Amino acid sequence: MKSVVETLNPTRVRLAVEVPFTELEPNIQSAYKRISGQVNIPGFRKGKVPPLAIDQFVGRPVVLEEAINDAIPKLYGDAVRENDLEPLGQPELDVSELSDGEELKFTAEVAVRPKIEVPEWEGLEVQVDDIEVTDEDVDKRMDDLRARFGTLVGVERAASDGDFVQIDLNATADGEPVEGGQATGVSYQIGKGGMIEGLDEAITGLSAGDSTTFRTKLVGTHDGQEVDCEVTVTGVKEQQLPELD
């Protein structure tokens, strides 16, 4: 087998492979054996059909095609190793027509790992800007750490900014329920945002058991659709932070 590699660009090559017909003989014999076990030819038991009968009733070109399909994966792998390539993905194969007794020729285009030349690191200089940490930065980081270990405690009062509430939602348009516009037992922190426009204003000041309706625009599947949204607060909790010690 002979193989030649052509670089198409830094990440893609084309392999041209030529295989003498004699090297395909094992694949041809295997093809005869497989076909023998698949065809029904009068006068022969399945699996015992001789090559001559297969050539006569099935056709020699069918045998050669079967042999090629069997041989190419290994031939391609041998060519890749022979040329020290690192393929990234499956190749695009192009097989020229094989005439009986003539060599097999095929090409394979495939993406490959690019060769990267790493420069010497000695002598390289790196500039790093000084980091300025303010008291506000420290306080925010400390508050974030405390919030991570905070606990939620139920309260008997109206919800305010920063509280966690348990809510039920029901969106309607012209009095009809909006598909996917209902939710039950949703946990939400007032002031966090990111759920429904106008929700923070609607639930601020509500206590557990209170309900209200507000006008809003939906996002997602019903993006931009104006609906009436009824919200019911079923629970109010405040976050208690651990002591900073």
Summarize the structure.
With 245 residues, the protein is of the alpha+beta class.
Keywords:
single chain; 245 residues; alpha+beta; Alpha-Beta Plaits; Chitinase A, domain 3; 2 domains; five-stranded antiparallel sheet; four-stranded antiparallel sheet; 5 helices; elongated
Described by strand count, sense and barrel closure, the largest sheet is: 5 strands, antiparallel
Distance between the termini: 75 Å
Shape: elongated
**Count of distinct strands:** 9
Reading the helices and strands in chain order gives EEHHHEEHEEEHEE
Low-pLDDT regions: none
User: What's the alpha carbon Rg, rounded to whole Å?
Assistant: 37 Å
What is the architecture of the largest domain at the second tier of CATH? 2-Layer Sandwich
Please indicate the percent range of residues in DSSP E strands (runs of 2 or more).
25-35%
Number of domains: 2
Total helix count?
A: 5
Mean pLDDT level: 90
- In CATH, what is the class of the largest domain? Alpha Beta
- In CATH, the topology of the largest domain is named Alpha-Beta Plaits
Helix/strand structural class: alpha+beta
Helix content: 10-25%
CATH homologous superfamily descriptor of the largest domain: Trigger factor ribosome-binding domain
